[in-house]
Design a protein that fits this description.
The complex is a heterodimer. Chain A is mainly α. Chain A has 6 helices and 5 strands; from the N terminus they run H-H-H-H-H-E-E-E-E-H-E. In chain A, strands 4-1-5 form a 3-stranded antiparallel beta sheet, covered by helices on one side. Chain A has a two-stranded antiparallel ribbon with strand order 2-3. Chain A is elongated, with a radius of gyration of 25 Å. About 8% of the residues of chain A have low confidence. Chain B is mostly helical. Chain B has a domain of 72 residues: Methane Monooxygenase Hydroxylase, Chain G, domain 1 (Up-down Bundle), CATH 1.20.58.2050. Classes of the chains: A mainly alpha, B mainly alpha.
């Protein structure tokens, strides 16, 4: 028995699954659009139902209509809650990822990288980004905000690792070309498959992002 | 229970049996008969988010005001289930009744006086929670309690524990995960301390 609110429920089930994942699954563009359309249809129904009353609707005189209106209203309210909760779950996840050092390029490229590992093979042939354009914008602006906030403290890295390092210097292997980085001891050119002995603090971010691998 | 809480939203999708008190021309689709009027007395399972308000709202006006729908307890909270819980809370796979059993019951108790249900469920949760804690610690592998292997709930023997864990509803699952992660983190910390 398909009824109003069923599709919204589907969205929330997606959100539930998202909560337990480390990556962000593809944005449900089509489902979101359909739920939003359902709300508009319901609103249209309500308007046309109320039209003959010319603003003087008496619920106790028209009980059946009052009940139908209530059902329509509740369905719209339900759809709204599902839509908001779905998007909120995703933005929560995005904020978490930004704090963990991902930027917009990592996130929008995530789909291809994930597919290669067989982690997210579902969306083959679809769009490359699992984010909606609005979400990409959100990540960009949230990243800017976080950077501005972090800028207040130049001697503390707020997003740095909480684990105290055992050794100041570590061996790393370069998994992906990461270009040139500046360190206290001069510039290092990180080309794929090369190995370096570097200060941990200098490369922590690159390890987290998967450019470098810690050895030993 | 926040507005954005996913589990709360999913709980609201649980269905309860309702009976419509008046004929409504436009709502036939709820009974799978679009285009036909919904007759008074029709019995339909409605999700909580719809049933709750329809049961509270009334037709208004005079003293004969009545609700649009009346409702019964869902099968998950039927007398049979309650009796089984009274007998042994640990033997009932709550998940098979409803993945959000406690949330569903809370809603039902808000809507009607079900004194006994509250008492039974409180006892159910307390009994099951200690069982959950026991299993969570075991999976964490702390292995302190080797001496109590003769206890009925201990998992060394067969899949009884697995079966119990599969029957957990969502809230209990959360509890299990928290207890499990806590035990694991504690163990890891202890090992790190020893290393230094």
């Amino acid at each position: 028995m398909p009824m109003y609110g069923d599709l919204g429920n589907k969205l929330v089930q997606h959100a539930k699954r998202t909560q337990n994942l480390t990556h962000l699954p593809p944005y449900q563009t089509e489902l979101v659009r359909t739920v939003a359309r359902e709300v508009r249809d319901l609103d249209k129904d309500v308007t046309s139902m109320l039209e003959p009353f010319q603003g003087s609707f008496d619920p106790s005189a028209e009980q059946a209509t009052a009940c139908t209106l209530l059902v329509n209203h509740l369905s719209m309210r339900r759809d709204k809650r599902c839509l908001l909760a779905y998007h909120r779950t995703r933005t929560d996840k995005l904020e978490e990822l930004v704090w963990n050092g991902y930027d917009i390029l990592d996130l929008s490229g995530q789909q291809q990288a994930g597919g290669a590992n067989g982690a997210t093979g579902m969306n083959e042939g679809g769009t490359t980004s699992s984010l909606s354009p609005q979400e990409e914008d959100y990540v960009r602006q949230y990243g800017d905000l976080l950077a501005a906030y972090k800028g207040h403290w130049t001697d503390i890295d707020l997003t740095g690792s909480l684990e105290p390092p055992r050794d100041l210097f570590i061996d790393v292997r370069v998994l992906k070309d990461a270009g040139e980085i500046q360190t206290e001891y001069g510039a290092i050119n990180l080309t794929k498959n090369s190995q370096f002995y570097v200060r941990q603090g200098d490369v922590e971010r690159l390890i987290a992002q998967g450019y470098l691998q810690k050895l030993g | 229970m926040s507005y954005y809480d996913i589990d709360s939203i999913l709980t609201d999708a649980e269905k309860i049996p309702c009976t419509f008190q008046l004929e409504i021309p436009e709502l036939g689709y709820l009974d799978n008969q679009p285009g036909q009027p919904l007759k008074a007395g029709s019995k339909i399972a409605l999700p909580l988010w719809l049933a709750e308000m329809l049961a509270i709202a009334n037709t208004g006006g005079d003293d004969q005001a009545k609700s649009f729908v009346t409702f019964d307890l869902p099968a998950a909270l039927s007398n049979e289930v309650v009796q089984a819980l009274k007998a042994d809370p640990r033997a009932v796979p709550l998940r098979d009744q409803s993945p959000h059993l406690y949330g569903l019951a809370t809603h039902m108790m808000d809507l009607s006086e079900e004194q006994e249900l509250g008492v039974v469920l409180r006892k159910t949760f307390v009994t099951r929670a200690s069982e959950i804690a026991l299993h969570a610690r075991k999976v964490g592998g702390t292995g302190h309690n080797k001496g109590t292997a003769d206890e009925g709930s201990n998992l060394g023997v067969g899949g009884t524990g697995e079966e119990f864990l599969r029957g957990l509803e969502e809230w209990e699952r959360k509890l299990f995960r928290k207890a499990h992660d806590g035990a694991k983190a504690g163990k890891e910390w202890m090992e790190n301390v020893k290393k230094r």
